[in-house]
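General statements about sequence and structure are easier to judge against a single worked case. Part of our work consisted of pairing the sequence of a single chain with a tokenised description of its backbone. The amino acid sequence and the backbone structure tokens for this protein are reproduced below.

***
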Amino acid sequence: MADGGKTAADLGAWVCFEDECGRTLLRPPKARTWGRRGITPVVAVSGGPGGRVSIAGTVCHRLGHRSRLITALDDPIGGPMGKSPIA
């Protein structure tokens, strides 16, 4: 609650929640399969080694308006990969 007992709805304010994470893509996902005992099967996986990716997102709410989701994806080596507001 804001000063004087007013809520965000009373003030007509936006309420926003933000979160971010970083992901390292050094190894492809594991692939598993069955094989005879003593013979290790070789399984090809798609997607080779990658780099690091940073992801951020914000969700905004305001009474009487549509909610908004704003995302950003960043590749530290190659620069920004793009920002996509979804309305």
